[in-house]
Amino acid sequence: MANKKIVIIGGGFSGVFAAKELRRKMGEGVDIELINKDNYFVFQPLLPEVAGGGINSSDAITSLRLLLKKVQVRLAEVINIDFDSKTITVLQGTRRLPVEVSYDHLVLAMGQSADLSRFPGLTEHALTMKYMGDAFTLRNQVIRCLEHADVAQLPEIKKRLLTFLVVGAGFSGVETVGELKHLIDKSLHYFPNISPEEVQVKLIEFADRILLELPESLGHYAQQQLEKQGIEVLTNVGVNSATMNGAELSTGEVIDTRTIVATIGTGPNPLVKKLGLEMQWGKIKVDRCMRVPGKENVWALGDAALIPMNDNPEDRLDFAPPTAQFAVREGKQLAMNIRRVINGWELKEFAYVSQGALASLGASKAVAEVNGIKLKGFFAWLLWRSFYLSFLPGLVTKVRVAINWMLHSFVPRNISLIEPPTKPATKYIHFRKGDVVFSKGMFADGFYTVISGGFELDLKNPETGEDVHRTYGPGQHFGERIILGRERRTGRIRATEDSVCLWIARDDFKRFARGFPLLDQYFQDYISEKFGEEALTPEDALGKKAAETDKDA
Amino acid sequence: MANKKIVIIGGGFSGVFAAKELRRKMGEGVDIELINKDNYFVFQPLLPEVAGGGINSSDAITSLRLLLKKVQVRLAEVINIDFDSKTITVLQGTRRLPVEVSYDHLVLAMGQSADLSRFPGLTEHALTMKYMGDAFTLRNQVIRCLEHADVAQLPEIKKRLLTFLVVGAGFSGVETVGELKHLIDKSLHYFPNISPEEVQVKLIEFADRILLELPESLGHYAQQQLEKQGIEVLTNVGVNSATMNGAELSTGEVIDTRTIVATIGTGPNPLVKKLGLEMQWGKIKVDRCMRVPGKENVWALGDAALIPMNDNPEDRLDFAPPTAQFAVREGKQLAMNIRRVINGWELKEFAYVSQGALASLGASKAVAEVNGIKLKGFFAWLLWRSFYLSFLPGLVTKVRVAINWMLHSFVPRNISLIEPPTKPATKYIHFRKGDVVFSKGMFADGFYTVISGGFELDLKNPETGEDVHRTYGPGQHFGERIILGRERRTGRIRATEDSVCLWIARDDFKRFARGFPLLDQYFQDYISEKFGEEALTPEDALGKKAAETDKDA
User: Fold this and answer.
1) Which of A136, A176, A407, B16 has the fewest C-beta atoms under 10 angstroms from its C-beta?
2) Do both B214 and B289 map to the same domain?
3) CATH code where residue B147 lies
4) Distance between the two ends of chain A, CA-based, in angstroms?
């Protein structure tokens, strides 16, 4: 009999621990595949320290392939799941031809996404703290503001550059504001034209105190510590909206700033949204064994799922909280349940009692509650770090990270502003005669205008069965139907001689072609004249759905 | 008497060592400013190791502010130099209003740029190895190819993904190909679906042997080492052209590959090009004391300058070679010459005899010639590393980097594919009523289409002196004249209510608006109708010049 195949979507705490435990308990008796958009695991609680330059990014991530021996890791984006045929459709590699992956058991562990859409302008003008890229961006943003402030000529610009606003005082907000202030304090003496009193770092929280996840006394201690470090903490204050120059608070006050970090607002992952599963509070409803009701062999856990902790859950406290600690335990217990199903044993309900909570405050301080015991200061912070080290695979890696952490407290903060090379939204692409630009079924990556040379299109009209041939020369264009939500190519385009195209990335082209009335009108006319209803093949439905989701997101 | 002000443009070896030596020898008696596009110094010879994942990027760079105590570091882009008024015009910060910096002595140390324009398609489809970003990009590219190949379905795609081509076998090409192969060898066991014989790594060199900078015997040793590591070395072979799918060699052979690294082809820095200085072989001609002839108190050195080593220079061997070793010595001697001028002493001509040369070959091997003695293997490689350590500022930093290097040989290669968050080419920008979008004189950053709300334009017609007012509502646009090369704003745009714009980055907009005939025609008509010859103010000349240079580049 062939091995059962278990596919896990998502490489966060819950997905990784489910995969590890499955491999550990079931040996080679099952095939395990983990699909993730990145090929590494991020230790998310360390992101604020990466943003603060306290540790290197490479010390807060681990390759999934290293972490998960004997698990097939697939670097891909899931675009659809068919629960009936037990098939997952993914985009991977460079060809952008969708690939199908089948499963016997499916684990949904894709977490949640940031969702700031309730606050006008916040999506566009605030930074978030969810991914490694966010930590990079924030660190660069702070250093760039210091660099610019050091040579700024207008006082109002300098003030705006030196004001930093963090929205939301949960774990992530508190740790981020602490690290951000620490980075500034440690770097300021390199910037001779900035005096410390010119810097303003603010933390705002809609509730009446910070760190609601911790007992009140620890919340107060944390607030005192932050204020002692020179951070202004405002409670009972939310954010209304944001622009390129600042934020408007719920009090009506406008904060002039270039740097807004929003640690509030999460919503379902875009993929989860379109699966048609029963949702509550933006999460997938599951039973106490983490099964998705009504779907065979489909499981969900971690931040993506709403796992009841008792039989009559009423409010949020009756469900597993979205913490790393719970995600790890959920992953392990889910693995055991899949094993039980495969072996025909009885399932067990998820049960776990929190061992406590911990928040780092920057400057080698933290607050913690462990098994009812409250800890604060340096010792709590050491505990925090030890937990992470215990998680890293391999002794040498642990030693390297530990040494780096130690040395990092002695060496100056790294204030190098490394701007990552950006992927251009427009570029010239050269083709040799005969090169295929794209072929039928490929996911559309962009829009092409011919600069020199020539191309030919071949497609079969799905209604008449007729072969269609067209040629394109300089000044003409192809691939424009992506603005209608048609995400997959219906024909093949090939260079008929050595040629050059100007290419524009899909999303940028869509935004511009829709937002700029001249283009919007032109393409509407062009497409209806040239293609009519001709080629709306069934596979486009998928693309259209994806496009709509993208628009909502 | 006010201090003399010495401005250095460029933060590479020559600029940094000139600044250090000036500060060391002249104390607080002079003001020193160093202007650079990045706020860090890159130890360029280590870039191949960063690309290979052998060291962290943070161990190959140092903050300029840390390196250059008591030197004003300005993170800015120089856009013009006026030698008569001794003024430099820079763009800095966020406002994009040009700022003027004056000097008594000016040191041109901006190095050279990559120039692949002789080979069609190479600029667009090859990676280079000059900046930190290049190293990142190459490392990501290699890992991405392995990830994709691990799940690729078509054999020809897999072959293309697993073929890697390095063009040019000087120091940079040899070190890059060695590190690249090493990264692949060390990572391959994480990719269960790729077998080692499927990987092809090729190095091509136009000359009849590799490493022309070193004695022939060392070149041969190096080639043997590379071949032993499984690298295919082809001499007497150049590249003709490149496309998105591969490269055509001078032999006519077409190599199917997604990864071309070009370490050939350099040209003058775009700024140097437009200064109108006398040039030879793409470098600024200077006298033996490194003065630029005909310009008062202007100096040039490093890769940007052609420094004669004797009174009758005939061929390239009569000039200082473009190596780090010479750049360091040039920096020091230039600093002494500026001191001599200020003190009224006699200048000294640049003189230096190379102490040797060194190339790392990957896998902890190197070849070297030091004072006529040939070294090879592990010992040469240790020498290489020691040289870098001696250069780092501060004992703790040295220790940290040394420990990291040591540990890196034990821990697995980091194969995490961290895709940097890209700066979008199009984005929605929110404005509050009264916000200024841009004002007169600002450098144009992009094109704006109004999505909602409204804006007003105020400008003064420079010919009639008349005040011009215009308003813009949804669907209308402003900022389009950048496609004509007008790089500086002639009026002020302000939001008349809370508004949202769709913004498109300057270069992407220019490329699209010029390359797409519909837009090209529309904007030509629109601009001539709306603005006529109205506002071609003198300050535009600068912008136009910059735009033309940009187009050439």
Assistant:
1) A407
2) no
3) 3.50.50.60
4) 43
